[in-house]
Amino acid sequence: QVQLVESGGGLVQAGVSLRLSCAASGRTFNQYAMGWFRQAPEAGREFVAAINRSGGSTYYTDAVKGRFTISRDNAKNTVYLQMNSLKPEDTAVYYCAASQRICVGTGCYSTQAQYAYWGQGTQVTVSS
Question: Is the pLDDT at 104 greater than 90, yes or no?
Protein backbone atom coordinates (compact mmCIF):
# COMPACT_ATOMS: atom_id res chain seq x y z
CA GLN A 1 0.00 0.00 0.00
CA VAL A 2 1.15 3.56 -0.65
CA GLN A 3 0.13 6.91 0.77
CA LEU A 4 0.29 10.01 -1.39
CA VAL A 5 0.63 13.64 -0.36
CA GLU A 6 0.39 16.45 -2.90
CA SER A 7 1.86 19.92 -2.49
CA GLY A 8 2.68 23.00 -4.53
CA GLY A 9 -0.75 24.33 -5.37
CA GLY A 10 -1.73 27.96 -4.99
CA LEU A 11 -3.31 31.07 -6.45
CA VAL A 12 -1.48 32.42 -9.49
CA GLN A 13 -2.08 34.67 -12.45
CA ALA A 14 -2.53 33.36 -15.96
CA GLY A 15 0.69 32.73 -17.82
CA VAL A 16 2.87 31.78 -14.89
CA SER A 17 4.18 28.39 -13.84
CA LEU A 18 3.66 26.07 -10.89
CA ARG A 19 5.20 22.76 -9.99
CA LEU A 20 3.15 20.23 -8.11
CA SER A 21 4.80 17.48 -6.13
CA CYS A 22 3.40 14.20 -4.89
CA ALA A 23 5.37 12.38 -2.22
CA ALA A 24 4.73 8.67 -1.78
CA SER A 25 5.35 6.55 1.27
CA GLY A 26 6.84 3.09 1.16
CA ARG A 27 9.82 1.42 -0.44
CA THR A 28 8.20 0.20 -3.65
CA PHE A 29 7.51 3.48 -5.41
CA ASN A 30 9.11 2.23 -8.62
CA GLN A 31 6.46 -0.49 -8.83
CA TYR A 32 3.72 2.10 -9.38
CA ALA A 33 2.69 3.96 -12.46
CA MET A 34 1.66 7.46 -11.42
CA GLY A 35 -1.00 9.79 -12.69
CA TRP A 36 -2.28 13.31 -12.17
CA PHE A 37 -5.98 14.07 -12.37
CA ARG A 38 -7.93 17.26 -11.73
CA GLN A 39 -11.43 18.26 -10.78
CA ALA A 40 -12.79 21.70 -11.55
CA PRO A 41 -15.78 23.14 -9.68
CA GLU A 42 -19.03 21.41 -10.64
CA ALA A 43 -17.17 19.06 -12.98
CA GLY A 44 -16.04 15.46 -12.91
CA ARG A 45 -12.50 14.36 -12.25
CA GLU A 46 -10.45 14.22 -15.43
CA PHE A 47 -7.13 12.81 -16.50
CA VAL A 48 -4.20 15.20 -16.86
CA ALA A 49 -0.99 13.19 -17.19
CA ALA A 50 0.61 9.86 -16.36
CA ILE A 51 4.04 8.30 -16.23
CA ASN A 52 5.04 4.67 -16.25
CA ARG A 53 7.10 2.95 -13.57
CA SER A 54 10.50 3.73 -15.01
CA GLY A 55 9.63 7.23 -16.14
CA GLY A 56 10.41 6.31 -19.72
CA SER A 57 6.89 6.88 -21.03
CA THR A 58 4.54 9.79 -20.40
CA TYR A 59 0.96 10.50 -21.41
CA TYR A 60 -1.05 13.73 -21.49
CA THR A 61 -4.52 14.91 -22.16
CA ASP A 62 -4.67 17.15 -25.22
CA ALA A 63 -5.56 20.24 -23.16
CA VAL A 64 -2.17 20.28 -21.44
CA LYS A 65 0.19 18.92 -24.11
CA GLY A 66 3.09 21.27 -24.62
CA ARG A 67 2.41 23.12 -21.35
CA PHE A 68 2.59 20.46 -18.63
CA THR A 69 5.35 17.95 -17.96
CA ILE A 70 5.11 14.95 -15.68
CA SER A 71 8.28 13.46 -14.24
CA ARG A 72 9.34 11.25 -11.38
CA ASP A 73 12.31 10.73 -9.12
CA ASN A 74 12.21 7.15 -7.90
CA ALA A 75 15.05 7.80 -5.47
CA LYS A 76 12.92 10.46 -3.76
CA ASN A 77 9.59 8.62 -4.09
CA THR A 78 8.17 11.71 -5.75
CA VAL A 79 6.26 12.52 -8.91
CA TYR A 80 6.06 16.05 -10.26
CA LEU A 81 3.78 18.01 -12.52
CA GLN A 82 5.42 21.07 -14.03
CA MET A 83 2.69 23.39 -15.25
CA ASN A 84 3.67 26.25 -17.55
CA SER A 85 1.59 28.92 -19.26
CA LEU A 86 -1.26 28.35 -16.87
CA LYS A 87 -4.76 29.32 -17.96
CA PRO A 88 -7.90 30.07 -15.94
CA GLU A 89 -9.39 26.81 -17.23
CA ASP A 90 -6.61 24.93 -15.42
CA THR A 91 -8.23 25.92 -12.13
CA ALA A 92 -9.04 22.73 -10.25
CA VAL A 93 -8.10 20.48 -7.39
CA TYR A 94 -5.21 18.35 -8.60
CA TYR A 95 -4.86 14.77 -7.39
CA CYS A 96 -2.03 12.33 -7.81
CA ALA A 97 -2.75 8.63 -8.05
CA ALA A 98 -0.77 5.40 -8.03
CA SER A 99 -1.36 2.14 -9.86
CA GLN A 100 0.26 -1.27 -9.61
CA ARG A 101 -2.00 -2.73 -12.25
CA ILE A 102 -0.54 -3.83 -15.53
CA CYS A 103 -1.41 -1.42 -18.30
CA VAL A 104 -1.54 -2.87 -21.79
CA GLY A 105 -1.57 -0.13 -24.36
CA THR A 106 -1.89 3.50 -23.38
CA GLY A 107 -5.60 4.05 -22.77
CA CYS A 108 -5.60 2.56 -19.31
CA TYR A 109 -3.29 5.25 -17.92
CA SER A 110 -6.04 7.83 -18.35
CA THR A 111 -8.67 5.70 -16.63
CA GLN A 112 -9.43 6.45 -13.00
CA ALA A 113 -10.26 2.82 -12.30
CA GLN A 114 -6.65 1.93 -13.10
CA TYR A 115 -5.50 3.68 -9.93
CA ALA A 116 -6.03 2.23 -6.47
CA TYR A 117 -4.37 4.95 -4.40
CA TRP A 118 -5.15 8.65 -4.34
CA GLY A 119 -3.86 11.71 -2.56
CA GLN A 120 -6.03 14.32 -0.85
CA GLY A 121 -5.57 16.89 -3.60
CA THR A 122 -4.04 20.35 -3.87
CA GLN A 123 -5.91 23.42 -5.10
CA VAL A 124 -4.66 25.32 -8.13
CA THR A 125 -6.43 28.59 -8.92
CA VAL A 126 -5.47 30.59 -11.99
CA SER A 127 -6.79 34.13 -12.24
CA SER A 128 -7.17 35.99 -15.52
Answer: no
